[in-house]
């Protein structure tokens, strides 16, 4: 990925890209796609599979918005916090059940509004609160099945050896085909384990999310349900001004995409049966990973069906954003490097 100024390439953001079909065949590869990377929040849809497959989501009557926020890295806007709280209430819980920790809303407008009230941020404002609310809902079903008190069962659910986290980890392993028992493991920002997975296997996981192929029947149905929910409520996945929300508002079920952290992105393209995973080596999201993801979507989606004019315009703008100075004067831009442009031309 290149940053230009005055017609000159000022900076490079180097990375790797894997596009894989549901059978595991490699469609496109750039860079080192076998090096394990921590996908972090990019795999939340895979971690949410047990919530739906177990029957917990149906039993609690979780809505599209609630299932979407279970897959989210949200802004912490009032609607996000309220939706996560609503999920917990359906399970007879409140925010004290969450073990993700609290932080100020990611969207500065929401953060300033919260600060103006004199309140402090809590777990519901954490960008992962929806994922953790989904964990709590699943945990309540598991506790009931064992005849245990839900709050007692949920204590310490972020630990790798907790029955709830083992269920979540098993779903991630089944989707990606990566032996997580042998994978490097760290701790994510929201306290749960995060496993390093090669980009090729990560992309394969997203191809399975796109198609259901290679998943158990219950997980395949869960993947389809989660994709529909996100398409119906894309605001919940990110929020005001965010890439994932803007793209999925425009494209609906044609594309599921999810930012991770440190320059990781994943996407499912159901019409094409493809999964995408990318990693920028310098960890840059907004100035690098998002540009590459937009370029991939703009190149590949028309193979299945033409983009509507507004969709094509949005992806073109996101794939080649203009850079302006403080006077509003255009001074440069961002764009995919020649190697990326050539690979996507061949792929398309």
TrEMBL record:
Pfam families annotated for this entry?
Asparaginase_II
Lineage, top-rank taxon, reads: Bacteria
Q: What is this protein called?
A: Asparaginase
Q: Tell me which species this is from.
A: Aquincola tertiaricarbonis
